[in-house]
Amino acid sequence: MNQRRGTNTDRTRVNEAIRAREVRLVGADGKALGVMKTTEALAAARASGLDLVEVAPQAEPPVCRILAYSKWRYQQDKQERAKRQHGQETKLIKFGVRIGEGDLETKCRKIRELLAEGAKVRIVVTMKGREVAHPELADEVLRRVDERISGAGRREGTSRREGRNVSLDYLPL
Question: In terms of Cα–Cα distance, which of 79, 41, 44, 85 is closest to 63?
Answer without folding.
Answer: 41
